[in-house]
Amino acid sequence: MRISNLICRAAAAAFSLAMIACTEPAEPEPDPEAAAQIGETQPLPSTLPAPNASTPRYVGLWATTAEGCTEPAWRFEENRISTRGEVSCEFQNVAMTDRGYDVQATCTAESPPTPYNIQLSFAESARAMMIAGGPWQQGTALVYCGSLPTQ
Fold first, then answer.
1. Quick check: is 124 in a domain?
2. Cβ-based neighbours of 45, under 8 Å, separated by 6 or more
3. Quick one: three-class SS letters along 93-126?
4. How far apart are CA 123 and CA 126, in angstroms?
5. Is residue 136 classed as helix, strand or coil in its secondary structure?
6. What digits encode the pLDDT tens for the residues 55-69?
7. Is 53 strand, coil or helix?
8. pLDDT tens, 68-106?
9. Does 126 fall in a domain?
10. With 50 as the cut, is the pLDDT of residue 52 above it?
11. Looking at residue 136, what is its pLDDT?
């Protein structure tokens, strides 16, 4: 009986320690002086659009830098993309992949219309959409600036 008593007490002690380890310490109150020193809060950088069944994720206004969002140069619509005076592409086929989208497009970039395969993928941690293929420099990354203006 003595060994079973020891086993029960050891189990109870282990359970008590486990319960203590699982409890979270109380959240300390913010220091008002420290908050006053920090000053105004800054908005977080823009995030990527959420996946949506009715609208492709790439649809919207994009730029190569967050600063470029003041006048976004890249306009992605469901079936086309255009950049300021440089490139215009019409999408013939858009296929969703596990990385993003594969697009067959015909693009005009200071030349006659040329067929291209374009891959769009999303880097969640970098909050960017990556473009491979097409008439752009390989590995172009874009930040999301916002949705398309309503007409």
1. yes
2. 66, 127, 143
3. EEEECCCEEEEEEEEECCCCCEEEEEEEEEECCC
4. 5
5. coil
6. 899 999 999 999 999
7. coil
8. 998 888 999 999 999 987 899 999 999 999 889 999 999
9. yes
10. yes
11. 83
